[in-house]
Design goal:
The protein has helices at about 10-20, 25-40, 55-60, 70-80, 120-130, 205-210, and strands spanning about 45, 65-70, 90, 105-110, 135-145, 155-160, 165-175, 180-185, 190-200, 215-220, 235-240. The chain has about 250 residues and is α/β, with parallel strands linked by helices. The strands form 2 sheets. A 7-stranded mixed β-sheet has the order 3-2-1-4-5-11-10. Strands 6-7-8-9 form a 4-stranded antiparallel β-sheet, with no helix packed on it. Bound molecules: S-adenosylmethionine.
Length: about 250
């Protein structure tokens, strides 16, 4: 693996075009609305800020945003965009990197908690976030519910995208809560492959990680427009709060 992690120059060069739907205003605006409301006039910290898909429109909304990001190649793409000069970015691992500031909201979207491939690293991430939040501040995660109901007994491969020129296959290791997302694409007549390892976690395990970090669940939805979270939900948007000892209800 490169210093930039799995989002190296090759991935960064096409990141904004590889999943154009995720850059649609119809997708981005509800995320920005949700985060701006939770920020409540305070500052925001994005873990895995990438090329600024969410950070730039959130900053344009008037929320000061700071980022943590492993990949210099992704940050170079962010820096090439108007408005990025107002966004500070610390290069490093968001499970451990310290930013000398406090925030009213920290957020980790687009399944990126799963990029931490051990339970210990995911727990460290929750603790790192809690240390960066003001009392009463919130941690927001958007992540898929593990897709195991779609995996027949004995199978390890689930196809999540099949088209003429692109195929996406998730390869599960159920015993380890691991999966590798394999992306294959025909580019200029040859097949290019990117394979990225993840660790999936159920919502209840994330709640326990929050508890270990001194936070508690405040809201859980199946989408950014506060759609109800049910047994059929494919993803969740969860908000954990760092108690404010001054509000008289700290646990
Ligand atoms: C799927 S992209 C999401 C980027 C951006 N948040 C978005 O919504 O478009 C995941 C990003 O997280 C970064 N990343 C993954 N693991 C990381 C880690 N442990 N520490 C810091 N950044 C990480 C990757 O380099 C990549 O830029």
């Amino acid at each position: 693996m490169h210093d930039d992690g799995y989002f190296d120059e090759r991935v960064a060069a096409t990141y904004d075009e590889s999943d154009p739907e995720m850059f649609d205003r119809g997708v981005v605006d509800p995320v920005v609305d949700f985060l701006a409301q939770i920020a409540g006039g305070g500052r925001a910290l994005e873990l895995g800020i990438g090329t600024g898909r969410i950070a730039l429109p959130l900053a344009r909304r008037g929320v000061p945003v700071h980022g943590i990001e492993l990949s210099k190649a992704m940050v170079a793409r962010l820096r090439a965009k108007p408005g990025s000069a107002n966004i500070g970015v610390a290069i490093g691992d968001f499970a451990t990197t310290v930013v000398d500031d406090r925030f009213s909201v920290a957020y980790l979207v687009f399944n990126t908690i799963m990029n931490l491939t051990t339970q210990a690293a995911q727990v460290a991430c929750f603790r790192n976030v809690a240390a960066h939040l003001e009392p009463g501040g919130c941690f927001v995660i958007e992540v898929g519910v593990p897709d195991l109901q779609r995996l027949p007994p004995g199978e390890t491969i689930h196809a999540f995208h099949v088209s003429e020129t692109r195929w996406g296959l998730d390869e599960y290791d159920v015993a380890r809560q691991g999966l590798i997302s394999h992306h294959f694409e025909i580019v200029d007549g040859t097949v290019e492959r990117v394979s990225i390892p993840f660790r999936y976690a159920w919502p209840a395990e994330l709640d326990l990680m929050a508890q270990l970090a001194g936070m508690r669940l405040r809201e859980r939805w199946s989408g950014w427009k506060r759609e109800p979270f049910t047994s059929d939900s494919r993803k969740h948007v969860s908000v954990w709060e760092k108690p404010d000892p001054g509000d008289g209800v700290a646990s």
